[in-house]
Design a protein that fits this description.
The complex is a heterodimer of chains A (268) and B (370). In chain A, 32% of the residues lie in helices and 29% in strands. Chain A is an alpha/beta fold and 268 residues long. Chain A folds into two domains: 4-226, Rossmann fold, CATH 3.40.50; 238-268, no CATH class. In chain A, helix 2 packs across helix 5 (196-204) and helix 3 crosses helix 4 (135-143). The radius of gyration of chain A is 23 Å and the shape is globular. By secondary structure, chain B is α/β, with parallel strands linked by helices. Chain B has a seven-stranded parallel β-sheet with strand order 7-11-6-1-4-5-12, with helices on both faces. In chain B, strands 15-14-16-17-18 form a five-stranded parallel β-sheet.
Chain lengths: 268, 370
């Protein structure tokens, strides 16, 4: 058995490194590294594990973004992905999750037209820049395949998939058939590092770059103008008034003075 | 097909999420929020609770929704809906929206709400905003919020703004570094998921009663492509961070897993619940279910004790609206001091035992203090 796998990935700014300008309420993105989105690395790793177990499995990574997103695709190739596609076009810019899912679904349909049906689409649960967790399920809807989100354990036997879907207080054990879309959380696995031969391959690999015409997507369903949601305002929260430092000569004094302050303000 | 006729739509729907016949707390919070918003909309706008499940599970829940403020309750019942499945719930909810035409549909941003809402929104080809922490209709309230709590430049924004009647959905982005208000100007319904623990329930009033409306569902076994074999509750201590009045949280400054013994003792003394930062979870010192922050639970207790927590932006995003924040940290430059109402610079292993020892004396201490 060999599988055809599609991995949906996104290049994101490392939000741990982002600072905001409180005067203007805008992000300072200069010097912030771009990375493969965390959950997407788990999605790719699960595909790679499947390929380890079933040689001949083909992994195609697809993303949408600006031209520099090829850097992230090179990283995916260097980890072991077989093929990489970048959907890039000004007409796709400013897409919200609905419009993004229309574009990515169109890209996947082109892959299917060229190479036949996929078995599984792995996506990350959510991207750290938007935190919406919407694009995975919306791609599944646009392609008409079942989805399981928050996947923390995965196994496959022929066409039958068994997964554990994380809930807030436990999990669901779910069975379903290929084709389907699964979204990965970090509990699913530990992503591998790039390896030397992979890096060598990635440097020479002709990453496919497809524009809106290539994927035949209806221009009324992609981009900023077609997106059903719009940003009305963006801003940063106001810094809080400075708090009160509790003083005291001993640890006991510090504790007592804290309790006095809390009591006097009727907090306790 | 997207609904584009704004005159055809009316009312706010709340997905009243239940699991095995028990309403999720967030469902009641959203009934409260929906009630508030509906009264800012044209007269006659109702807040409607939408129950999906088996008849046995959902029939007893309607009274609770009415008592917490629902004007109407819709029941979408079928034996095939006993377990949550994306396919089954999406079909019946999307069908009901197309039949009954709500203006707004809101969901709790739970693992189920965040699975269901995007699929429904994609089927209806309408907009969905994820994980909102604030919703506004009234433009004056919204402008007040921007002026009071944010750095937003409100110049040019007036109560007569052309977008004034739209639902303004505010949410954090970029790991809490930025906030954005999102609108859905061209399609209906406007859909949002809302973070649990943020909106306020109304007080329960059992004199509020109503008769639920059964909505016919059209579902066959073939519509459901997945099989839920079992639902397993994790056998671990119950952490209810969202309901806690007091939270005692530990972070990297504890130095090791044994530090949570002290945090537990502290929480037991003050009647609180144990929380943690992501760093402590990532280090393997405590289970993820205790994690407070952007990728954990959002909390709003009366008192939040942050012990040995530096205050990474992801953590602050999950606790900074607590009524009172107290921090104990060795490092006077830790960012947590910037959001704390009371800060103690000191060794938590020395200060916390003293707080525990003096806790019951607080009243006396306050009476005798200057």
């Amino acid at each position: 058995m060999a599988y055809k796998i599609i991995v949906c990935a996104k290049q994101v700014p490392d939000t741990n490194e982002i600072k905001t300008n409180p005067e203007t309420g805008t992000l300072i993105r200069d010097g912030v590294p771009s990375i493969l989105n965390n959950d997407d690395a788990n999605a790719l790793e699960e595909a790679l594990k499947l390929k380890d177990a079933y040689p001949g499995t083909k992994i195609t990574v697809i993303t949408m973004g600006p031209p520099q997103a090829t850097e992230m695709l090179e990283e995916c190739l260097a980890m072991g992905a077989d093929d990489a596609i970048l959907l890039s076009d000004r007409a796709l810019g400013g897409s919200d999750t609905w419009a993004t899912s229309n574009a990515v679904a169109a890209g996947i349909r082109k892959v299917v037209a060229e190479e036949g049906d996929f078995d599984i689409i792995f996506a990350g649960r959510q991207a750290i820049d938007g935190d919406t967790a919407q694009v995975g399920p919306q791609i599944a809807e646009k392609l008409g395949v079942p989805q399981v989100s928050y996947v923390k354990e995965f196994s496959i036997d022929g066409k039958e998939i068994t997964v554990k879907r994380a809930l807030e207080d436990g999990y669901e054990l779910i069975k379903l058939q290929t084709p389907c879309l699964l979204t990965a959380i970090k509990e699913l696995n530990t992503p591998r590092y790039m390896f030397i031969n992979g890096i060598y391959k990635a440097m020479k690999y002709p990453i496919k770059v497809w524009n809106a015409a290539d994927i035949g997507v209806d221009l009324n369903t992609v981009g900023l103008k077609a997106s059903p949601t719009n940003v009305f305002k963006s801003f940063t929260p106001k810094p809080k008034e400075p708090g009160k430092k509790i003083e005291g000569d001993t640890d006991n004094d510090l504790a007592k003075n804290l309790l006095i302050a809390l009591k006097k303000k009727h907090i306790i | 097909m997207a609904i584009k006729d704004f005159n055809a739509v009316k009312n706010i729907w709340v997905f009243a999420e239940q699991r095995h016949g028990k309403l999720m707390n967030v469902a009641l919070e959203l009934i409260g929020e929906g009630y508030r918003l509906s009264r800012e909309m044209p007269e006659g706008t109702k807040v409607c609770g939408v129950l999906i499940g088996s008849e046995e599970d959902i029939a007893p829940l309607a009274d609770e929704l009415f008592a917490y403020g629902a004007d109407e309750v819709y029941k979408l019942a079928d034996p095939l809906l006993e377990q949550y499945t994306t396919d089954g719930y999406t079909k019946v909810l999307a069908d009901a929206v197309e039949e009954l035409l709500p203006e707004i549909v809101i969901f709790g941003a739970t693992h189920i709400g965040r699975d269901l809402a995007p699929r429904v929104a994609a089927r209806l080809d309408t907009g969905l905003t994820a994980d909102c922490t604030r919703l506004d209709i009234d433009m004056n309230n919204y402008i007040d919020f921007l002026v009071r709590d944010t750095t937003c430049n409100t110049k040019g924004l007036t109560p007569e703004d052309p977008k004034k009647d739209l639902l303004k959905q505010t949410r954090p982005a970029f790991g809490g570094n930025l906030m954005a208000t999102i609108i859905t100007p061209r399609t209906r319904p406007t859909m949002s998921t809302v973070r649990p623990g943020v909106m306020k329930k109304r007080d329960r009033d059992d004199s509020l009663k109503g008769t639920p409306i059964d909505v016919k569902v059209n579902l066959t076994e073939d519509d459901i492509k997945i099989q839920v074999v079992e639902v397993v509750k994790a056998a671990k201590e119950l952490v209810s961070l969202t309901d806690a009045d007091i939270i005692c949280s530990g972070g990297r400054g504890l130095g090791g897993p044994e530090g949570f013994n002290l945090i537990r003792e502290f929480a037991d003394k003050v009647g609180g619940v144990v929380g943690s930062s992501r760093a402590a979870v990532d280090a393997g010192w405590i289970d993820h279910s205790h994690q407070v922050g952007q990728t954990g639970t959002t909390v709003k207790p009366k008192i939040y004790f942050a012990c040995g927590i530096s205050g990474a932006i992801q953590h602050l995003a999950g606790m900074q609206t607590s009524d009172c924040i107290v921090t104990i940290n060795k490092d006077p430059d830790a960012p947590i001091f910037e959001v704390a109402d009371y800060g103690i610079v000191g060794d938590l292993y020395k200060v916390i035992p003293q707080i525990i020892a003096e806790w019951d004396n607080a009243e006396d201490l306050a009476n005798h203090a200057e």
